[in-house]
Write a structure and sequence with these properties.
single chain, 298 residues, alpha/beta, 7-stranded parallel β-sheet, two-stranded antiparallel ribbon, 13 helices
Length: 298
Amino acid sequence: MRDQRERFKGSLPALITPFKNGDVDEAAFRRFIAWQIAEGSHGLVPAGTTGESATLSHEEHNRVIEICIDEAKGRVPVIAGTGSNATDEAIALTKHAKAAGADAVLSVAPYYNRPTQEGLYRHFAAIADAVDIPIVVYNVPGRTAVDISVETLARLSRVANIVGVKDATANLMRPSRERLACAEGFRFLSGEDGTALGYMAHGGHGCISVTANVAPKLCAEFQDACMQGAFDTALKLQDRLMPLHDALFCESSPIPVKFAVSLLGFSSDEVRLPLVTASEGARARVREAMVSAGLIKA
């Protein structure tokens, strides 16, 4: 398990799920995955929040994971999104991901029902007990309305197959506090592109990134620089990427990033209700940021 967890590092795009006429566009998704690997992404994260898991059926959710694993062909690790606010459902999704050949799973803190810290611990511990696969827990209080505390994460880090955290709190005191509290070898992955530079300087191992959908090569170079301690180089890349980080969250994610990917020709900008496609103002902002980053021509 320890050797496995060291693979979870660098730029790990939280992949969009391409749609076409209301259905998952498998051909587009395969092309997109192949491009991500060719551009240097260090791993892939399908069927997460950015992949619109909330509006995928169980069959679609499982199929998206299967496609990603099949297309990756072991070239990079696949961390499959399998979280739910129902523990039994999270276990079922996690069992499928293991059977499909995922290298690890990403399990979000239960949303809406707002469990206590003890409830959070028991939820993740139950998944870990039910399925022998590396688990990265996902802390994103802005979407779930619950925060995995440092103390709870420290307890979870001592569960054998809970191997890391995706931290989307944007609180740059958290990674140092958690490093000091958690078991040796635990993996710390940023879930917030704009603060990933600081997160890495605090001892992080990588970023599960929205922006990497659009700028995989730049995000991989940024992470390579951080992992080598070349923070002067990383800062230059951060300055190039920061307007794009901002633009991709100017409306509810993944609305802007789907439009951005459509400009690159890999997918339509189609999303599922209750999300709607990007407004004209958001489109202009995304296009401008992509031009500024050198991703498309004006």
